[in-house]
Structure formats: structure tokens, C-alpha cells
Design goal:
By secondary structure, the chain is mainly beta. The chain has four domains: 252 residues, Sandwich (Immunoglobulin-like); 90 residues, Immunoglobulin-like (Sandwich); 170 residues, Jelly Rolls (Sandwich); 81 residues, Immunoglobulins (Immunoglobulin-like, Sandwich). Helices cover 8% and strands 42% of the residues. The strands form eleven sheets. Strands 16, 19, 20, 21, 24, 25 and 26 form a seven-stranded mixed beta sheet that branches. Strands 27, 29, 30, 32, 35 and 37 form a six-stranded antiparallel beta sheet that branches. Strands 8, 9, 10, 13 and 14 form a five-stranded antiparallel beta sheet that branches. A hairpin with a 2-residue loop joins strand 43 and strand 44. The radius of gyration is 36 Å and the shape is elongated. It starts with a helix and ends with a strand. The N terminus is likely disordered.
């Protein structure tokens, strides 16, 4: 009797020892985007895997069998280094043996589609071969019936910007275990469902499931584990898993983890942190109207809107940024119901005193269950008006800095706006200008602003503004508009000194496609002049303002604001100037045709805004020619400004070497 009880006790102990944890099996399919049998096999395979979701998790490796897809964005091409290691003869070393009686032909997978269960051949668990078509419910049940000496817990959470998954893994030994070789925990990021509109390969397959897209830290390295484990021993680790740039849908991303003995390739246990939606409880932030400051302070406001469907938002933190530098965080509490919005006024912030363009944005930091989020409110530009300058402005947009130093570009809605163009310039004498994109701006009535540097007119006499313009209407009914406004009270009020729209603004015939000035037709440009001779204030602001009718593109170049004392009468039509040769590498001739004889000045300015040449001369009535020596000039684009009683004119000169 005692002997029988002892036997029963031993059997019970062995049962507890062997059956500590149910197994989650790992299924690896080696399939391919150029493999016709794969395309016909996968739909049924996916259905079988879905029917056994409590028993098995899958990773699909998109191998280059029979050939590699040629498209660089294909599932294989975007992750080929890891895939090549997992399937290839020089990689992990899975043996090629289609069934129990077939010879082992080589290391590595040599046919597709092919499958492995827990790192072993399918036929070990009752399938007739390694072809996925032979995977059945019974085969999966047999594989899953073998218990495991480990349990795995995987917990995931989006990072604050939903660009990476923070993963915590806890492994516990539920029975003693000793591995044959190195014991490795591998973490593979998969997309559960991918639907292409166009096949990425050549087999017609557009729907893919459980596709491996990235491993962490790498597939080859994995996370090392101890070779020998005792009952109850644990290992916990965390990792950040950034989504690769080629991820199709964030909310389809899952993480599959598995313990593998590299000595015999067997997988001891697997688990999956399944896909998780981007949170519905989200908030949007729209930066306030920070357009202009003359005091060195801005008081931004932020509109918050709860874009979620279920929960109110009660707590968050707003961190303002000026020119990318974080300010003091501002806590907010309240009750923002789904769909509701509110305006939050932040504390006044000291702005950099440098005149010109600056940026404001805000991070909205909140915590809700499972997700820790930072939403970035749209970055907006604002203009600082300080250090009012008394020097003339000559801007040809020849440097990559945009807006140019001292200038400011305001785009309140963040849509199409002012930008630097490096394909065409005034009268096609250069390749630089500033462009306003009416063509793609579908917000009718949208206004955007381009500020000149703050100006001091107190010592000016006869100030004039010149600029080159090129524009076409989309059709004869489009009325995009350009205005020039001036203010002497820091934008409290503005005076309109120039306004053109529709056909009066255009320099070319209407065109239905995106307008680009004809490089073979300098007549596609026009020079406009604005008389500012009545301005004598020490603090003048000038801005170009566009009003969109979703017409066609506008280009401005050679914006010149002349403050030269004593020049009263300027007319852009009474002075004609040409340069030849242009480009030049030795000398160029400046030919000036004036209606009246009188004093004039030639000024040459480089791309840094430095004056490199000044010459006073007297123009004769009719044609005068001046020879300019440029052999010592550095290669580049120069602005040549001619001031005279006949008017002012700016031309671009290209110096080559």
C-alpha cells in the first residue's frame, strides 16, 4: 500500500514538474511577394491561425524566393537584413527538410511557402510536410499540448508621441530548465494586417498578415537569458521599440516575443503584445495668434479641443517653445468634454529681441490610461519689430536663410504660404525669389504676410519701394490679391499703399497648371514702384499681404527700399538698365538709358548684404555706359542698384569663375 502511494506521489510530482505553464506556440512562415504558391496558400493559412488564436501566434518572413521584389518599398526590401539572416544558409541555420523521409539538403530555408512551429519542422507535430497547406487544427493542438517551463508577460504602451512602443517583458520559470545552447528572448515587431492597393511583388498578393517589420534590439542579438533556471526565477526588462519609417498603419503594430534555445532551435514559449489603437482620447492644440510684438513680450493663447469620443480631459501640462527653446511648463486643470474646446492664455514670455522671424509652439502633455501622449500644437511664426534700421533694403533671396534676416513671414493657418524659390528669379537673371502658393491654397480669403525689416524713416527723403513681380491667374475669374500695408504704431492700424488683384496683378496670361515664369520670356516679370516719400516716422512697419482666391502662383524678387536722402522724383519707367555680359567673369557693362541727365549712384551688394562697390556718376540724357570690373569678385549672385533722379532700378549680376 505504501509503495503504491509513493508511486502515485511521484507521478503527481512529475505531472506538476512537466506541466507548469500552457504553451503559446510560435508559427513562422517563410513566404514571398513574388511567390505564386504563397499567394494561393496564405488566405487559408490565415484562417487556420485565426481559428487557433489562443494556441499560436505568427510571424511572417517575406523572403526573396523565387526572387527579390524590385520595388524598394516592398515588404522584403524594407527589412531584408533581418529576413536574410532568419531564412538564409548563412544565417540562423534552420535546416531544409520538407518531410520526415526527405534528406537535409542545406542549412537555411530553400523553398516558399514553408513553415516552422516552435523552431521545428511541422511534420514533427503530425503534418505531412513543412508546406503551410498541411497546417491543421490538429497539428496546432499537438504542438500546443507540450507544456512549457516558462511564462511570459508582455505589457506595451505608446510613447508620448505615438512613434514608439514602450515594452515591459517579465519571464518566470515555472519549472527548472537548462538550455542546450545560448538561450535568447527575441522581440519581433509585426503588422497584423497590411492592405496594399497595388501588389508590392509580382504574385498578385495585396493582403498580408503578421508581417515582420523590425526586431529589437536586433533579431540576431535578442535579449540574452541565463542558460540554467530554477523554479520561480524571474527576469524583467524594458525596451523602447521605435516604429520604422515604412510602417503602414500604427494601429496594426504588435510585438511578438519568444524564448529560443539556439543550441537546438527549439522555442520554449511565445507571447504577443497585440495591436493597440491610437487613443481616441486625444487633444488638439492650435497655437494662438502670435503675429507681431514690439515690446519683447508675447502673450500666446492656445485653443485646446478634446478630439476623443468617450472621456473628458481634466489635467494636462502646456510647455511653450520659442525658437525651439522650452519655456516654463504651465499646468491646466478643468473639464474638457469630448468635442469641446477652450482657450488657454499662457503667461507672457520674453521673446528674443532680434528683429525678424521667430517661432512659437507648445507641447501639450497628458496622461490617460495605457497612453502617455504629447501633442505638438502647430508651430506658428511671429514678427519681432525692434532695432528700426535707417539703411536701405536690397533683398534678392539669394541665401538659403528664409525669411531673410530682419524679414518675417506670418502664416496663421499653417497652410500654403510664403517660401523661398530657387528655380527662378526676376527677369530670369537668377534662380532665386520668394513665392506665394496661391495655386494649392484652397482656403478662399486666407491672408498671409511677409514683413520687411522694421524701418526708421526719420532721416529719409523721397523713400521708394521697388520690387519685381510675376503672376498669372488660374483663369480670368480668379482674383488673388497682393497688398502692401504700412504702420507707424506697431500694427495697431495700417495704411494700404498698394493693392492689385486679378488681371491687374498678373504679368502673364491665365494658365490652368501651376504657374512658373517663362524662362525664355523676361517680359513675364514686371517692376512695380510704391512711393513712400511721405513717411518720416522713426518706427515704420511694411508688409506684403496676400489674399488667396486659389488662383495661381505669385513670385517677388529684388525687393528694394531706398532711403537715399534728396531723391524726390523716381519713376521706374524713366530709367532702363541692362547688364552685359551676364554672367560675367572679368568685366560687365552697365548700360543706363535715362530720360533726364543728372546725378546717379551705382551700388553693388553681395548675398550677405555687404556693399562691395559704390560709385557716384553723372548720367547723360539718353544712353550712358559704365564698365564694372568684377575679376576680383567671388563667384555668386550680386545685386546692382542704380539710384538716380530718373528712378531706381536693381539688376542681378552673376559672377562665374
Amino acid at each position: 500500500m505504501k509503495k503504491h502511494l509513493l508511486i502515485l506521489a511521484l507521478l503527481f510530482f512529475l505531472y506538476e514538474f512537466k506541466a507548469q505553464t500552457p504553451r503559446m506556440c510560435l508559427y513562422e512562415e517563410f513566404t514571398g511577394e513574388t511567390c505564386p504558391p504563397c499567394a494561393s496558400t496564405n488566405p487559408a493559412l490565415n484562417a487556420t491561425l485565426a481559428a487557433n488564436a489562443s494556441k499560436i501566434v505568427a510571424i511572417k518572413w517575406q523572403v526573396p524566393i523565387p526572387s527579390a521584389p524590385t520595388k524598394t518599398w516592398s515588404l522584403y526590401q524594407t527589412n531584408k537584413a533581418e529576413i536574410n539572416w532568419r531564412y538564409g544558409s548563412n544565417g540562423y541555420g534552420y535546416a531544409s527538410q520538407d518531410n520526415a523521409t526527405a534528406p537535409v539538403t542545406s542549412p537555411g530555408i530553400n523553398s516558399a511557402p514553408s513553415g516552422r512551429i516552435d523552431g521545428q519542422h511541422q511534420w514533427i507535430f503530425g503534418a505531412t510536410s513543412d508546406h503551410p497547406v498541411t497546417l491543421t487544427n490538429a497539428v496546432i493542438s499537438t504542438a500546443q499540448s507540450y507544456t512549457s517551463a516558462f511564462s511570459i508577460t508582455m505589457n506595451r504602451a505608446w510613447n508620448k508621441t505615438c512613434t514608439a512602443i514602450n515594452l515591459t517583458v517579465t519571464i518566470q520559470a515555472t519549472a527548472p530548465f537548462t538550455s542546450v545552447g545560448a538561450l535568447i528572448f527575441r522581440t519581433v515587431m509585426v503588422e497584423r494586417n497590411i492592405q496594399f492597393s497595388v501588389q508590392p511583388g509580382t504574385n498578385g498578393e495585396t493582403h498580408f498578415e503578421d508581417v515582420a517589420i523590425k526586431s529589437f534590439p536586433t533579431l540576431q542579438q535578442g535579449t540574452p537569458m541565463a542558460s540554467t533556471w530554477t523554479l520561480g526565477q524571474t527576469q524583467t526588462f524594458t525596451m523602447s521599440c521605435p516604429l520604422p519609417s515604412y510602417t503602414r498603419k500604427k494601429d496594426e503594430v504588435a510585438l511578438v516575443g519568444f524564448i529560443q534555445d539556439d543550441g537546438n532551435k527549439k522555442v520554449a514559449q511565445a507571447a504577443r503584445a497585440d495591436k493597440a489603437a491610437i487613443p481616441d482620447d486625444a487633444i488638439s492644440g492650435v497655437s494662438a495668434q502670435v503675429d507681431l510684438t514690439c515690446t519683447g513680450l508675447i502673450t500666446p493663447t492656445v485653443e485646446l479641443k478634446n478630439e476623443g469620443l468617450l472621456n473628458s480631459i481634466t489635467v494636462l501640462t502646456l510647455t511653450p517653445y520659442i525658437d525651439g527653446v522650452a519655456g516654463t511648463p504651465v499646468p491646466w486643470t478643468g473639464n474638457l468634454a469630448p468635442g469641446a474646446s477652450t482657450i488657454v492664455t499662457l503667461n507672457s514670455v520674453t521673446s528674443p529681441a532680434l528683429s525678424g522671424n521667430h517661432t512659437f509652439s507648445v507641447d501639450i502633455d497628458m496622461s490617460i490610461p495605457v497612453y502617455n501622449l504629447i501633442k505638438n500644437a502647430t508651430k506658428v511664426n511671429y514678427m519681432v519689430a525692434a532695432n528700426y534700421q535707417g539703411a536701405s533694403v536690397s533683398e534678392g533671396f539669394t541665401t538659403s536663410t528664409y525669411p531673410p534676416p530682419g524679414f518675417g513671414a506670418i502664416n496663421k493657418d499653417g497652410g500654403p504660404g510664403w517660401s523661398r524659390n530657387n528655380l527662378t528669379g526676376g527677369y530670369n537673371l537668377s534662380t532665386e525669389s520668394t513665392k506665394y502658393d496661391f495655386f494649392t491654397n484652397t482656403v478662399i480669403g486666407d491672408k498671409d504676410e511677409l514683413y520687411l525689416p522694421p524701418m526708421d524713416f526719420s532721416q529719409a527723403s523721397g523713400a521708394q519701394l521697388f520690387f519685381d513681380v510675376a503672376h498669372a491667374q488660374r483663369n480670368t475669374s480668379s482674383v488673388d490679391q497682393l497688398d502692401i500695408l504700412v504702420s507707424d504704431n506697431c500694427g495697431i492700424s495700417w495704411t494700404n499703399v498698394y493693392s492689385k488683384n486679378g488681371a491687374s496683378l498678373a504679368t502673364a496670361a491665365p494658365v490652368g497648371s501651376a504657374y512658373f515664369p517663362d524662362s525664355g520670356d523676361p517680359a513675364s516679370w514686371r517692376t512695380d514702384q510704391v512711393d513712400l516719400s511721405t513717411l518720416t516716422q522713426p518706427d515704420v512697419l511694411i508688409k506684403f499681404v496676400t489674399t488667396s482666391d486659389n488662383g495661381n502662383n505669385l513670385y517677388l524678387d529684388n525687393i528694394n527700399l531706398s532711403l537715399t536722402t534728396g531723391i524726390k522724383d523716381r519713376s521706374s519707367t524713366s530709367l532702363k538698365v541692362s547688364l552685359f555680359p551676364n554672367p560675367a567673369n572679368g568685366t560687365t557693362h552697365i548700360m543706363m538709358n535715362a530720360m533726364k541727365a543728372g546725378a546717379a549712384k551705382i551700388t553693388v551688394i553681395n548675398t550677405l548684404g555687404q556693399v562691395v562697390f559704390v560709385k557716384d556718376l553723372t548720367l547723360a540724357e539718353g544712353t550712358s555706359t559704365f564698365q564694372l570690373d568684377v575679376k576680383d569678385y567671388a563667384a555668386g549672385v550680386y545685386s546692382v542698384l542704380i539710384d538716380s533722379k530718373n528712378g531706381s532700378m536693381v539688376k542681378k549680376l552673376t559672377v562665374t569663375r
